[in-house]
Amino acid sequence: MQQQTLLPALGGERREFQPERTGMLSWYQDAPAAPSSSTPLLLIHSINAAASAYEMKPLYDQYRRQRPVFALDLPGYGFSQRSRRRYDPRLMTDAIHALCDEIRAQHGQVAIDAMALSLSAEYLARAATERPEMFRGITLISPTGFNRRQLREGPPGSTRGLPRLLAFFSRPRIGAWLFRLLTRRAVIRYFLRRTWGSRHIDEGLLDYDCATAKMPGAEHAPLHFLSGFLFSGDSGRLYLALRHPIWAVHGIRGDFVDYRGLEQLKGKLNWQIETLPTGALPHFELPREFAERYDAWSAARLR
């Protein structure tokens, strides 16, 4: 069988490096010749069966014309290492730390702005509580980490992983069969429609999801996701501990709209929470309005 070739998800330059704690990491970066802002922006995609930096494409394309922008492929996804190993919040957080160190080395140790989508909001929150000096402002898009009306406040560093389920999925025939089932084009389209809350999904994202899911080792991180090991048990503690200016934004359509736990954070002065009439990827559906709201928040809170 001929080896599949994965094309870059984004424009600009794709780079790689090999931090000891994460294995090989890949990221994209770009910047205008004369940026209007010198503060770098880091973009972090979500976690699912076929995730990649393509999930942040509208924001990458918008801000690469204005400021230095970086988009990470998390471990197990895109061009980053997809080996068989344990995938958990610690690994994902260490990947964020590693790229932040690289960004700050390029830009004079300046504090950066960061945006994370869905489950990766939990990893960005962990990174920001562990090394607050690295970040200036934080944006959480459709954040996870709530048990309906409650924040998750389990033991520090805990996950929601189910070892027996992971052991079952790790059987070669079962895991491979399940992953192939979940990453059929029709199934990916079905889940994107649930995410959008609409039949009108982004076809480019669908195409890239199908391509990245065919790469060797693509099943390893998703099987940990399905087993609960990539969900933080202590995400509520992390959100409550954040001291940076936070902009949280989410939609109102689709299957992923239970953000009642965010109500507990509305009273915190550093949090600003907004909704848009979209599904869980508001930056795809309303890119101009999303950028306008983000820019207004940035101008008011990140001086």
Total domains: 1
Shape: globular
Oligomer: single chain
Low-confidence segments: none
Query: What CATH first level would be assigned?
Result: Alpha Beta
Task: Record keyword descriptors for this entry.
single chain, 303 residues, alpha/beta, Rossmann fold, eight-stranded mixed β-sheet, two-stranded antiparallel ribbon, 36% helix
Short description:
With 303 residues, this protein is an alpha/beta fold. The chain is built from eleven helices and ten strands.
Describe this structure in words.
With 303 residues, the protein is an alpha/beta fold. It has one domain (13-301): 3-Layer(aba) Sandwich (Rossmann fold), CATH 3.40.50. The chain is built from 11 helices and 10 strands. Strands 1-2-4-3-5-6-9-10 form an 8-stranded mixed sheet, with helices on both faces. A two-stranded antiparallel ribbon has the order 7-8. Strand 5, helix 3 and strand 6 (135-141) form a beta-alpha-beta unit.
Sequence-ordered SSE layout with sheet pairings:
Layout: E1 13-17, E2 25-30, E3 41-44, H1 57-63, E4 69-73, H2 89-106, E5 112-117, H3 120-130, E6 135-141, E7 146-147, E8 150-151, H4 163-169, H5 172-182, H6 185-196, H7 203-212, H8 220-226, H9 235-241, E9 246-250, E10 271-275, H10 282-285, H11 287-301
Parallel strand pairs: 3-4, 3-5, 5-6, 6-9, 9-10
Antiparallel strand pairs: 1-2, 2-4, 7-8
